[in-house]
Amino acid sequence: MKHQWPDSLLAKAVKIRLIALDVDGIMSDGKLYFSATGDELKAFNILDGLGLKQLMAAGITVAVITGRKSPLTEKRMRDLGIPHLMQGREDKKVALQELVSTMDISPEAIAYMGDDLPDLPALRFAGLGITVPNGYWLVQQHADYCTIARGGEGAVREACDLLLTAHGRLDAALAPYLEPEA
């Protein structure tokens, strides 16, 4: 079902030129999985990946800022073509400010999506703060939007659709999949 967002939310979303995302709890379900040999396992939702590719094709920059360092995260972001990955960054607001200082982007043109307390300063700094229903209550309280989908279950895709809708680009992003059959 296609979402209907309030005009006030779309008014904020239309200004966005960069979305920065947390990983654990946003792009994954927030659980840490380890094999018997100690190898880390992580699941990423394929819906989110296509949504991020559609955003980048529409000219919106994507960045990932995470407190943990993970080769799995590095591989997934490389596979998606995400140009900005900052790992091992506990102070996500500082990381976000460092990133945008090189890009000439004002805070009102930034969306930040996170789910827990380390994300809160970055979420509050950004012009559009997005979280998930399985995120921490205080983060939900400060976010401009809480997705319907849970983290790791298509929440990033929902945020991508929000931004594409606000920019008038969702229909164009979906059109190739709706072409008449030959």
Automatic annotation (TrEMBL):
Domain of life: Bacteria
Family stated for the protein in its record: Belongs to the KdsC family.
Biological function: Catalyzes the hydrolysis of 3-deoxy-D-manno-octulosonate 8-phosphate (KDO 8-P) to 3-deoxy-D-manno-octulosonate (KDO) and inorganic phosphate.
Name used for this protein in its record: 3-deoxy-D-manno-octulosonate 8-phosphate phosphatase KdsC
Subunit structure: Homotetramer.
InterPro entries per record: CMP-NeuNAc_synthase, HAD-like_sf, HAD_sf, KdsC_fam
BP term (GO), one: lipopolysaccharide biosynthetic process
Cofactor needs: Mg(2+)
Keywords associated with the record: Hydrolase, Lipopolysaccharide biosynthesis, Magnesium, Metal-binding
Binding locations of substrate: 24
GO molecular function list: 3-deoxy-manno-octulosonate-8-phosphatase activity; metal ion binding; N-acylneuraminate cytidylyltransferase activity
Signal peptide residues on this chain, from the entry's feature table: none
EC number from the UniProt entry: 3.1.3.45
Amino-acid positions noted as binding Mg(2+) in the UniProt annotation, renumbered to this chain: 22, 115
